[in-house]
Amino acid sequence: MLKPNALAALAARHGVGETLTRQVLIVDDDVGNLDVLRAFLDADYVVHEAISAEVALALLEVERFDVIVCDQRMPGMTGIEMLARVRERYPDVAGILLTAFTDTPVLVDAINRARVFRHMHKPWEPEDLLGAVAQASAMVQQRRLNARLLELLAARGDELKGALDQLRAAQQKMLHLDRLGTIGRLTAGITHDLRNTLTGLTLLESVFEAQQVAPRLMAPLRVGVSATRHLMATLSTLHQFAAGNLALKEELIDVGEVVRDALVLAGLEMEQRRSRCVTAIAPHLPPVRCDRARILQVLVNLLRNAMQSTEGPQLIQVEAAESDGGVVIAVQDEGPGVAPEIVSRLFDPFEGTKGAQGLGMGLYMCRLIMEQHGGTIRSMPPVPPGAGARFVIELGKGRDGNQS
User: Fold this and answer.
1) Contact at 8 Å (CB) between 28 and 166?
2) E strand or H helix at 264, and its extent?
3) Which residues in 155-286 belong to E strands, given as ranges?
C-alpha cells in the first residue's frame, strides 16, 4: 500500500493540484449552535451555514465542500437522512454527525446508511471537534487524490497497471480501516453500557435464586442474562479486532464436545421458543487445534441466528463431519433463508439476515474468528433443497499434520 507521502509525491509528479477547498458546511436548526460552531472553525476553514437539511443540499449544488458537520435532530429531515443523500451525490465529502442521543439504531444508521466519518455526542469538546474536522479533511484529501490518480492512470494503459492496482488496494484498505475505527468506537461505548446492565441482571438472578422464584419467572431472566453475555462477547471480539489484538488461545479440542456445549448455552432460549435441535455428529472426528471459547462463540451465534429466523417453533439441524483432514460443522434452520440481494455482503459489518431488527455484527464476528483460525464460514443452500438457511464452518489441517 502506498504511504500518504508517496501518494502525494505521485500526485505531484502527474500534475494533480490541491484537492481540498478548505470549506466546511455546518448544519443546525439552532442559530446559537451555528454561532458556536463557526467560532471554533472560522480560524482554519471557510465556514458556510445552513439552518436546515434542505438549505444545506441546495448549497451543495453551488459550492464544493470538504466536510459537513450537522446535527441529527432537525425538523423535516434528520442529519442521517441528509448525509445519506450527500453520500449518494457527493461521495468524496466527509460527514460528522452531532447527536445528544446514544440509541443503537441511530449509531447503526449513521455508519451503515450515511457512512459518517465520525459521530460525536453533545456536549462536545472544542479540541475533539477540531481534531475530527482535521482528520476528516485529511481523509477527503486522500480520497480525492486516489480518485484523480485513478482517472489519470486508467488512461495510461497496461504499462501503469501495477500502480493502478496499488492505488485501488490503498483506497479499499483506507475505507476498511475507517470502518474498523468506527466499529471500535461504537463497540467500546456499547460494551460499557452493557456491562452495567449485565451487573444488574446478574444481581437480580442471584436474588431470584436465593428466594427460589418460580421456574416460569427464572427461565426468561436466565435467557436474558445469557443473551447479554453473548452480545458482550461478540462486541468484545469486534473491539479487539478493530484494535488489532484479537489473540487466540489454541488447544486441541473435541469438536463434538464443543457442539454439545453450544447447545447447552443456547438451550434456554431454544426452550423458550419451543424449538428443538437434531444433531448428527460423526464418530471419531479428529481433534482440532483452535481457541475453544472463540469457536463456541461462533456456534452459539449461529444457533441463535437459526432460532431467531422465525417467530414460531422450528427444527434446527446441527451436523459435524470430517472433510479433507479437517472438520466441517453445519447449522440449518427452517426460516425464510438468505435473501439473494444480501448474499454477497452477508459477512460484512452491519449486514445480516434480520434486517432492521439486528445490528448485523454477528456473522461478521463469526467471519473474523474463522479467518483468525485459517478456516472459513459460508452460506450454503439447505439440505435437502427448500426453505431455510444453512451456514457451514470449516476448520482445516494445521502445520506439521496437526489440526488447526
Assistant:
1) no
2) helix 255-272
3) 250-253, 276-281
Do residues 204 and 255 touch, judged by C-beta distance below 8 A?
A: no
Position of cell 447503526? 108
For range 173-177, the mean pLDDT? 56
CA 99 – CA 101 distance, rounded (Å): 5
Quote the percentage of the chain above a pLDDT of 90: 35
Point out which residues pair with 70 in neighbouring strands: 27, 97
238-264, pLDDT tens digit by residue? 666 666 566 778 899 999 999 998 898
The gap between the terminal CA atoms of the chain, to the nearest Å, is: 30
SS3 category, 230: helix
pLDDT tens digits, one per residue of 279-336: 999 998 999 999 888 898 899 889 988 998 888 889 999 999 998 878 999 999 998 8
Q: Taking the model in full, what pTM does it have?
A: 0.48
Query: Does 252 or 221 have the greater pLDDT score?
Result: 252
Q: What are phi and psi of 394, to 5 degrees?
A: -135, 130
**Per the omega criterion (within 30 degrees of 0), is the bond before 384 cis?**
yes
Report residue 97 as a C-alpha cell: 454527525
Is 70 in contact with 95 (CB distance < 8 Å)?
yes
Tell me, what DSSP letter sits at residue 257? H
Contact criterion met (CB below 8 Å) for 271 and 257: no
Dihedral (CA of 150, 154, 155, 156) sign: positive
- Left (φ > 0), alpha (ψ -120 to 50) or beta: where does 183 sit? alpha
- Helix (H/G/I), strand (E/B), else coil: 290: strand
- Return the residue matching grid coordinates 472560522: 42
Buried b (16+ CB within 10 A) or exposed e, 157-191: eeebeebbebbeebbeebeeebbbebbbbbbeebb
Which domains can be identified in the chain, with CATH numbers? 4-155 (3.40.50.2300), 251-401 (3.30.565.10)
Contacts of 233 (CB under 8 A, 6+ apart): 297
Name the 3-class secondary structure at 154. helix
Query: What sections of 273-374 are H helices per DSSP?
Result: 292-307, 362-372
Phi-psi region of 367 (alpha: psi -120 to 50; beta: other; left: phi over 0): alpha
Cβ-contact 104, 62 below 8 angstroms:
no
Q: How big is the CA angle at 296 (ends 291 and 301), to the nearest 5 degrees?
A: 130
3-class SS at 331? strand
